[in-house]
């Protein structure tokens, strides 16, 4: 399966996502903030990143933009997983380079489906 990085400052959400994707057969690493997320991504070059938007310090949008400026992450899929649900938020995330957008609270089955679809594309 895939190597997945979860970047979320909420330990409960990060653990839920880790569990859901691990059960689906993925190898999952967790980073607790944007700076650690970039470091973990640079070290492992994951196939997919599940990225929270609202984190202290560096936001998920900033992480997404930073990674997308590095051509070595061109094949890495990024899903924003956030409570922000306005159409303008979705547009901003897509503009930053996110491949998909999932709103919290989320259904684990839906997240698994979206991850599978992105990895298959």
From TrEMBL:
UniProt record, GO biological process: phosphorelay signal transduction system
List of residues that carry 4-aspartylphosphate: 52
Pfam families the record matches: Response_reg
Molecular function terms, GO-annotated: DNA binding
Residue ranges annotated for the Response regulatory domain, each copy included: 3-119
SUPFAM superfamilies: CheY-like
Superkingdom: Bacteria
Coiled-coil segments on the chain, per record: none
Keywords: DNA-binding, Phosphoprotein, Transcription, Transcription regulation, Two-component regulatory system
InterPro entries: Bact_response_regulator (IPR050595), CheY-like_superfamily (IPR011006), Sig_transdc_resp-reg_receiver (IPR001789)
Gene3D superfamilies attached to this UniProt entry: 3.40.50.2300
Database matches in PANTHER family: RESPONSE REGULATORY DOMAIN-CONTAINING PROTEIN, STRESS RESPONSE REGULATOR PROTEIN 1
Protein name listed in UniProt: Alkaline phosphatase synthesis transcriptional regulatory protein PhoP
Species of the source: Microbacterium laevaniformans
